[in-house]
Amino acid sequence: MNHLLSRMSPSVTNMIRMDHTHVLTTFHQYHPDTAPRVKKGLADTVCVALEIHAQLEEEIFYPALRAIADSDFMSKSVPEHDQVRRLISQLRHLQPEETSFDEAFYQLMNAVMHHVADEETLLLPTAERVLAHQLGDLGAEMTKRRLQLTASRGGELAGSMARSMSAGGLVLGAGALLAAGYLLSGSPRAPVRGATRPEPSVSPF
Ligand SMILES: [Fe+2]
Ligand SMILES: [Fe+2]
């Protein structure tokens, strides 16, 4: 493992929390009256962020946790990722001018909020207890893999960022995906609250 990467990476659990924060921030920049081009940019940004995040968890975090803890409590994790992937696929087949685009976007947001709340209230605290001595190495491993995944989707990310930023807002999630920011910011935040059971397809905005 690259020594510099190991020293500068946040722990795996803090990195996952940062990913969650960045994607939820991007979700909250979307409004029904947002311009279609910007809606599409925000949706594309969220979709790529979620795909990379889910892959990182499935390749690095979930196996490490499964190897040491009773895996029953994480039995829903991968099926929920699969549901998110199905919702992403639906969203990608819609046009941002259509009302159904808003509905699909909010459905995706609700599924993600539910999943994030479960991870932050159960999986991450458990990992911090049972994987205490591996959190740094797993964080470095995740950073290394993230750099590979984001490099292969760089053009896609740049395009969606450009569209989403034309609203005048800064999409933190996309910036975070470019990875460098992760290496220097490691502060945890409070878990997501009040999102365990969001009403389906209801916009909170
Ligand atoms: Fe997850
Ligand atoms: Fe997650």
UniProtKB/TrEMBL annotation:
The chain crosses the membrane at residues 167-184. Pfam families: Hemerythrin. Keywords: Membrane, Transmembrane, Transmembrane helix. Gene3D superfamilies: nmb1532 protein domain like (1.20.120.520). InterPro entries: Hemerythrin-like. Residues 13-126 form the Hemerythrin-like domain. PANTHER family: HHE DOMAIN PROTEIN (AFU_ORTHOLOGUE AFUA_4G00730) (PTHR35585). This is Hemerythrin domain-containing protein.
